[in-house]
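Budget justification note: compute hours in this period were largely spent on complex prediction jobs such as the one shown. Inputs:
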Amino acid sequence: MKTPAKTKPAPLIPYFLALTGLVALAWWIAGGIEITVHRQYTGLVDFSLGFVLLAAYACAQMFKTLGLPLLTGYLFAGIVSGPHVAGLLTKDLVENLKLVDELALSFIALSAGGMLRWDFLKERMKAILLNLSFQTFFIFALTCGFFMLTASLFGSFSELSSSQTAALAMLLGVAAVARSPSSAIAVISETRAKGVFTETVLGVTVAMDVVIIVLFTVVLSAAKTMLLPQSPGMWVSMVAVLPEILGALVIGLLLGKAIALYIDRIGKDIPLFLLLFAFSVTRVSIWFEHWVHDLLHVSMTLEPLLICMSAGFTVQNFSRTGPDFLESLDRFSLPVYVLFFALAGAALDLGALLKTWPLAVGLAAVRTVGLLGGSWLAGTLSQDPPLHNRFAWMAYLTQAGVAIGLARLTERQFPEMGLYLTTIVLAAITINQMAGPITFKAVLNMVKETNKR
Amino acid sequence: MKAVFVLLLVVSLAFIGYRMSFRGFRLPFAAVRVHFTGIEFLFLGLLLGPAFLNVVDEETQRGLAPLTALLLGWVGLLFGFQFEVSKLRRLPFEYLAAANFQVLFTLVSVFLAAYTVLPLVRSMAEGPRLSVSLTLAAVAACTGQSVLSLMVRSRETTRTSLVRLLQTIAGLDGFVALLFFGLAFALRSASMDSSDWLFQIGKDLAVSLSLGLGLTAVFLLLLGKRMTQSELILAAVGLAVLTSGAASVLNLSPLIANFFVGVCMVNLSREKERIYQILTTVEKPVYLLILLFLGVSWKSGSGLWLALGGAYCLVRIMSKVAAGVLIPRLFMGLREISPQLGLGLLDMGGLSLAILLDFSQGFQGPAGTRAVSVVLPAIILTFFLSPYGLNQLLFGKQDEDTGKD
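Corresponding output:
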């Protein structure tokens, strides 16, 4: 996503008029025409996709003139077009466009891996590890504690038994630790930020995805032990998850080598190749999970995001083709970001927020306190500049798909309790995802690392 | 899940294919031709479709319909970009007149032949009969440019004005053909027993034009500041998808609606060159995918339909040749042009394919299937015949009449 450095903001009125025109057209097409044949339905899918692309772009440009991140504009357009406001993107449609969503996420994961530089990670290893440890501990502990103490105040949770409340609190704690690497990368790309602060944030955010998989496995096993006595123990689950993570990382490394070979030897249509690569990784991972389950009756997931991150990291750090790789990703990144975040906006559950807003606001606030404490302590111990330590929390607020994924997985394991979890997580994410990109852009400006690339 | 797999498969094939096709390999000319036009994708589609492997079954085809609409929209937009008024004004009047005469002559001839023959083969109601005949005529009338550009690139010719005339005709004759196809689309849903069909045609035309103008206005507003390349890609893709979607919901042709948008854009936008460049970047994979989808929808390969395809091809060739003979006689400024002009107009280009695919998508059921079954054998025949016709026109007896035209 190349944005010219320090360009004069574009005037608001043309974008406003364009948006008005698009909305009027959408009103007519989606509201006034009766859909009777399949061709019209597929047309509506195309129309909605086109509308989201153009409306989100116009919206983001308007937000940009107000000093807000483009990402917030994409999300806003998605929320407004989504099932809870205008209804142009219905729940079914958002579900049908999940393929686009998955593809975009894998593509963004490739970028995330590609942005990490091994020499820098080595240099900042201590700071990254400290951030990971303290942030995880503070957020998890504070969220758990907050929920345990306050759950009885909220009507719907008073029916839960004490072990259910404890299990739910732990699972909420894990969900609160999760981040949104995609949002972080989108904001970094937009602001063209570079520097110690930016790269530390990126390193922590990406590595947190690995931490979260391990933590979630541990907590889910603990919850199972508490609620379902016959379930396998925590250590069994731990032993099972490690090969998955290692497998994904090794496969990513091999695929990264393959990408580098393609760029080096063939070097043509690289963006298209990467798009197909991301797509294939996502689908093959899903197929592999089903295949192993059908064949061996065990659950084994090769996380496509980890594979893509590892592949991107390999191309960037262990081949000569890193710059070509990143440039090619950049060429396709704008449509991918627009579509992904607009769809993410449409998927944000305003209904859940309305239902549980006091608890969601409380959880978001506690999470912020956890981030503040964790990042300040880690920064101080790493002897980072005080300005960085004071405001680092602002870079970590964003939350999206990973937390939702965790909630959905829990729902599969504990249908009744998982529903509570999903509702609260979705509500809290809505708050964090709206505020996160704005605070992240603001802190990048504060530490003066924008427009450095 | 299957739609996703097929999507991955066909996009990969197009991706690999366009690197291998449209290239002048050092092979005998007929083989070059097969590679160059990507006709192998038609057979690949046939192989993957319900007629053989059934990888792309009916349900998967429905799942891929949004992609098909996008492909059609892309072609429409690209074709619309060829109608820049300031450039058209610079063309000699005779060239424009010859292009329009040729296309009208072919349209009328093929339409009359199809309209007469179709009821003899299968009983058809008046509406579908008219629609199929109009579409067959529109497909036949378009002239492709690929053989001409390959031949001119590979071998030098002194007949530059003839080449220019051929390029003009091939570039512009699709306009009238598209209008004819628009008629077919409008008549599809209209009742032929009343004056309803006239109203339907007017309504479709008005809505398509308004959509084109409205979306161009939106696009021009978005282009208020100079966009970066990736912003422009986003806007172009968004525009094509939006227009295709709106057209499909409104029961219009995505091809025609996007064509109008393209015409408006090329005449009103400052960024036309950059947008055109983006559109042409994926032009070849788009055509390959259209060929593939047409192959998939080829269901009836019986002797009768193959014979009809042959007859259709024959009528088309005869119309083009006859129009070519008449042009030097009718237009004063083109007296020097060879009366064999029609031999250079046999190639069937991407627009013909797009019209056919649009028709097969918009006319689910026997009408669409029949049209595809008639045209595809003709397309294959033409793929092999057109290079010889063009070769005869451009290089036959060249020593004697060098510089004649």
